[in-house]
Write a structure and sequence with these properties.
heterodimer, A: mainly alpha, 2 domains, 11 helices, 55% helix, B: 291 residues, alpha/beta, Rossmann fold, globular
């Protein structure tokens, strides 16, 4: 049996009240390029339904349907006749997964790169040589000290350490 | 006309040859792009935002605060544009968000009021289409272009506020002005599948496979994109698909800036076309386009 988590339900509704307006018409899933290809593994309507009900266990722990399969194409948001801000709600759910350390490896790898370098793709020696050959200027990226201080404020590092949960 | 140039990560640190054509065309148009020291990752709206919205806001607002704000920021990347416009959107929509973000920024002695304007390079080209027209030396005759707009150039429309979210025309118009033909194809408005690579590689490949099939069926001889994530998805996966599924994809992928650059008379050598995995010169030869 699915268990309702009332605190979670309130938190999601308070974060984005547009959720209450969903009448489960399935326009989102009908227009979703991923739902079309994944045979139930990803279904935006179902994620919204579970969010309305407050099924934290399903959404965050077992991730069924899997919110990480959203391609962020934003079609559902444009198509929704009730103006439900689906991708904002999916972002909140994925942020909750992050706080529990339940995120796909590639996401934590990118996060680690930003934390360590300030940018998602550090400049390799080969690329710096190529840039020189192409007569491109050297551009100074962010001060790491500054980025680290900022990310401490947002608890990013602490949550990232939880990875693997 | 001048903008602060926000380079992001993927183009300068992985695909620098795309930066070459992008810089050259704006120089030719007399639009000044100024480099700014100290930018971080935008950060990625399909990555960092998905795991931590507040960190995304904080880093984005810090970047926006570094602009001198004459003309605002220009970026060659749809992801960076979505992030920077998105951060502006949330900050200006909700005063508590603005206060919270500035509480983070206070720690590093910065302030952001939400006023820096952000534009995609294709938007700037479109807004200067008459100037583009004037600079054309070699119309792109014989180019049958499959345009891939990509999702983040258009949506969410409430944040992007540019072109139509489902029936866009701006890039078609630019391509036509260059003398090329925009070829309509099934799945033109579908996602390339790049963002789901992080969670399901096979699904991501299926999505790009379907698009490439449709592009071949429509008879296009090249693809044009305006986002480095889409570029990688189209360019890097053709060989992979050929290996896995026995397809024979070999269609050149151009960045919009590259098409503009060759129409302006720049040479493939000075644009770094040799760094493409699928070499454009095969196309030039087959359609008799002399570069």
């Amino acid at each position: 049996m699915s268990v309702i988590n009332f605190d979670f339900r309130n938190e999601v509704i308070n974060h984005n009240a547009s959720l209450s307006y969903c009448y489960q018409c399935s326009t989102c899933s009908g227009g979703c390029p991923v739902a079309l290809l994944t045979n139930g593994k990803y279904n935006p309507r179902k994620i919204i339904e579970e969010a309305i009900l407050g099924l934290q266990e399903k959404l965050v722990e077992s991730q069924d349907p899997n919110p990480w399969l959203c391609s962020t194409c934003q079609k559902c948001v444009e198509l929704c006749p009730q103006k439900v801000e689906l991708t904002e709600i999916f972002t909140l759910i994925k942020n909750k997964c992050f706080e529990k350390g339940k995120i796909p490896e590639a996401f934590s790898a990118q996060a680690q790169a930003v934390l360590e370098n300030g940018i998602a793709i550090p400049y390799s020696k080969a690329i710096l040589t190529r840039r020189e050959k192409l007569k491109l200027p050297q551009v100074k990226t962010a001060s790491l000290e500054e980025i680290k201080s900022l990310l401490k404020e947002t608890n990013f590092e602490k949550n990232l350490m939880r990875e693997g949960g | 006309m001048a903008f602060d140039l926000f380079l992001g990560c993927v183009i300068p640190a992985r695909l620098p040859y795309l930066e070459v054509s992008s810089r050259k065309i704006f120089e030719k148009l007399g639009i000044d792009l100024r480099d700014v020291d100290g930018f971080s990752c935008c950060p990625d709206p399909t990555g960092i935002e998905q795991i931590d919205h507040n960190t995304w806001l904080a880093l984005g607002a810090r970047n926006l605060s570094l602009s001198n704000n004459n003309g605002g920021i220009i970026s060659f990347c749809s992801g960076c544009v979505e992030t920077l416009k998105g951060v502006n959107y949330y900050i200006n929509k909700d005063l508590t968000v603005k206060k919270e973000v500035n509480r983070y920024l206070e720690r590093i002695d910065k302030v952001y009021e939400g006023k820096t304007e952000v534009k995609h390079f294709a938007q700037v080209l479109y807004e200067n289409i008459d100037k583009v027209k004037e600079k054309i030396e070699k119309p792109l005759e014989g180019f049958k272009v499959a345009i891939h707009y990509g999702c983040h150039y258009l949506r969410p429309s409430e944040i992007i506020e540019w072109d139509d979210p489902f029936e866009p025309t701006t890039i078609d118009e630019i391509v036509n002005v260059l003398g090329a033909e925009s070829v309509d194809y099934d799945l033109k408005m579908e996602c390339c599948g790049n963002p789901v690579e992080k969670s399901d590689k096979e699904l991501s490949l299926t999505m790009i496979d379907n698009k490439l099939k449709a592009i071949y069926e429509a008879g296009a001889n090249c693809v044009v994109v305006v986002c480095p994530a889409c570029y990688q998805q189209f360019e890097f996966n053709q060989r992979e698909l050929n290996k896995q599924k026995g397809s024979q994809y070999n269609i050149p992928i151009f960045y919009l800036s590259e098409l503009v650059a060759i129409a302006f008379g720049f040479k493939p050598d000075e644009l770094g076309f040799n760094f493409h995995r699928i070499k454009p010169n095969v196309l030039f030869e087959s359609i008799g386009f002399e570069v």
